[in-house]
Amino acid sequence: MVLSYQPMAYLLALLSAGFYGAADFTGGLATRRANALPVVFLSQAIGLVLVAVAIPLLPAASPSRADLWWGALAGITGGIGVALLYRALAIGTMSVVAPITAVVAVALPVVISVVLGERPRGLPLLGILLGIAAIVLVSRPTVQPSDSPAARRSGVGHAFLAGIGVALFLLTLAQTRREAGLWPLLTDRIASVAFFAIVIVVSRGSVRLPKNPTALALAGGSLDMIANALYLLAVRIGPFSPVVTLSALYPAGTVLLARAILGERLSWWQAAGIVCALIAVTMIVGG
Fold first, then answer.
1. How far apart are CA 38 and CA 44, in angstroms?
2. Which of 46, 47, 154, 186 is 20 to 30 A from 221, comparing alpha carbons?
């Protein structure tokens, strides 16, 4: 039965990668013009509004308590991952940060599967090694003189942590049942919005943003929610590893947008690292 749904699952996963890439680019632009915390809060809030409006229009679902709790956990881990990623995109080079996050986001599920008793075959193991090499390559100094070494190092560190958050988000959301519909995404956003609201209150921050960052945050949050829905549908009708692989190809979209709109230039080392990273994402779970 699963085999008959594989082509549709792969298409949905590829579409989710496109929307994730566009969301990361848009969110990164917003955090270059404003503080990351209100940007993430606003993007998560618009996602909550969208899924709350969509659920009554969809066929009835029957989520279990576990489905809702998995969604809430995904909201916390994914929200933190997005916040770290937006920060990394704001202080680093987008076409360098995004592949680092993607490699970590795919490598972590493989490591967890090994801990649980699975042993990766030759191709995934080579993919992990290639991913490490890619991270070293893309972490080399950028050719853009406006980026300081300290900023680049901060961007790389945030990208690593963001990858962990994204990986946990993908793993936890995949635990929900098909019968749950989009309800896990509702508890996902409720949890993330509540979390960042608490952080803002404790830090005495503000959610007010200038006009342009507000529009970018709303656009990024909308694109991210669409990507989440596509990924959730894909992972429920297709095999987990290929779906995660295809969804994790989102850096390609971020890189293309950063190059086309921002004119970002890379050294040959970094360009080779990006290619290796994208190949590694496929190899890690492609076996």
1. 10
2. 154
